[in-house]
Each structure stands twice: as C-alpha cells, then as structure tokens.
Amino acid sequence: MIRVVLPAHLRTLAKVDGEVELDVTGDATQRSVLDALETRYPVLRGTIRDYRTGQRRAFVRFFACEQDLSHEQPDAPLPSAVAMGTEPLLIVGAMAGG
To answer: Rounded to whole angstroms, how far apart are CA atoms 71 and 9?
Structure first.
C-alpha cells in the first residue's frame, strides 16, 4: 500500500480527505504511483502530469523521506519507506512569483 498526500486543491477535485492509499502493481515508481492515482481518480488526469508527454507539470513537486524527488526519472524506484507504506509520497503545488 502506497500512501500519497495531495495538495488541497487536488483533494477537493478528487473529493478525498487526508491521505490516499493506493495499491501499486510492480515496482513503486513515480510513474506507477501516478498511474494508480489517475486510474482510481480519473478527474486528476492531466493535473499532475501532461496528458501527451507524461512529464510532471511545471508547478508540481514530489517529496518523500525529506528528499525532493521532482527531477528523478519517472521509472526510478521510490525510497523503500514509501514502497513499504511507512512514509507518504507528497505531491506539492509549487509557488512562484514575487
């Protein structure tokens, strides 16, 4: 079971409260977690990553185990604590501007 924490606006869109728990088939990677998330909550398709390219949206970041995983390859394994469900994968909406 993979635990995912979504930003408030995506929780509202998906109509969920708190963390989301997902069953992920195979290795726990950003791609497999996002695939499972979008399968369970189709309304989130295109909000975290681009429909066509599969690339992470510019103002979305991924964190786990006090590490910024935003620039990791989509198929790189997530930290073992995330894969075991002891730590969540945080999806964070980044801020910009001044």
So the answer is: 22
